[in-house]
Amino acid sequence: MKVLIATDTVGGVFTYTSELGAELEAGGDEVVVATMGPAPREEQRRRLPARVHESEFRLEWMEDPWDDVAAAGEWLLSLAEEERPDVVHLCSYAHGALPFEAPKVLVAHSCVLSWWRAVHGCPAPAEWDRYRQEMSKGLRGADVVVAPTRAMLAEVERDHELRPGSGTVINNGSSTPPMGLKGPYIDRNRPVVGGERPLVVGSGRFWDPAKNLAALDAAAEGLAWPVVVAGEMGDAAPTHARSAGLLDRAALAELRRGAAIYAAPAVYEPFGLGILEAARDRCALVLGDIPSLRELWEGAAVFVDPRDERRLRWALEELIEDGTRREELAARAQRRAAGYGVARSARAYRRLYDRLRSVVHQGVAA
Question: Which one, 12, 13, 171, 229, has the greatest CB density within 10 A?
Fold first, then answer.
């Protein structure tokens, strides 16, 4: 089977694409990737399949993107005509309305409308009406709309009327090897960063209020263990935590493996690949109490009101002081993470692709 994945190079969507693409190729499928947004970094290029078409078209959530979105659509149609994929797998909404000959799978990784509601507590303003309209057209044009959690699918359905039966859930997956199943990666009692003892780690875009890493920074003041945050800082910077900056995948994995606790006090997180990777690395999880994270990690994490910095600090203090509970939670998180492997995700996508192809073939035969 030949799959054309149209994606972007920003954040978790790129990780999703690179890992799913590698797993599909390992299973014998041919994967062609078309990238939009900022040019891939060299470290990113190494993680992509061999067949990659790059562009730097602005993404639909960026400022004044619509000329670029239209140009990207023409580009994708020409690529599809050249490549003749069996399935087109889209990670952007507007392009779901394009007249591809192959069936279209559109993945709702996140969206501005639900992000705005979670972050600001109100609907997105009128300046996002064009985005809303283009998103609706794309969702209606797709053969299947996939969300990584039931919570995210519910958010999409809240804002848009999907075609009956077109929405489904396929959890994201991670290929990060689990820690401790075939021997430990690190000795948790040895110094790990700057000669200090075990860490609390958070990762993500520090400037993004949805990730809410500013709350983790506030909770870090006076904490017995150091707190390190990794990711793009933007114009902001942590005051009480330490910044590791934007790390490549290997360096970020090493940082997580030197930590006993991973904190993600998110107010909006449709899935959270960083959380999954931390769980696979046997970190105890402290998470924002939001529907998507409850759905994925109920019983395997500590949940806190993400807007209550004091409760976040208390939760971290309790886990630092209670090693037995901390290790129990870390083990639970790791066991739960084993159910979110990328191989399982790829199998679910293959079944979906096969179903769509069979429908197309039946239509041709009729």
Answer: 229
Which residue, chain included where needed, has tokens 């009956």?
Answer: 164
Q: Residue 198 contacts by C-beta under 8 Å, 6 or more apart in sequence? A: 188, 192, 225, 258, 259, 260, 261
Reported as type and span, the H/E element at residue 200 is strand 199-203
Q: Specify whether domain 2-173+341-365 bears CATH 3.40.50.720.
A: no
Confirm whether 2-173+341-365 and 199-340 share one CATH topology. Answer: yes
Q: What global pTM score does this model have? A: 0.90
Extents of the domains making up the chain:
2-173+341-365, 199-340
Euclidean distance between CA atoms 60 and 96, whole angstroms: 12
Q: State how far the Cα of 153 lies from the Cα of 169, in Å rounded to an integer.
A: 7
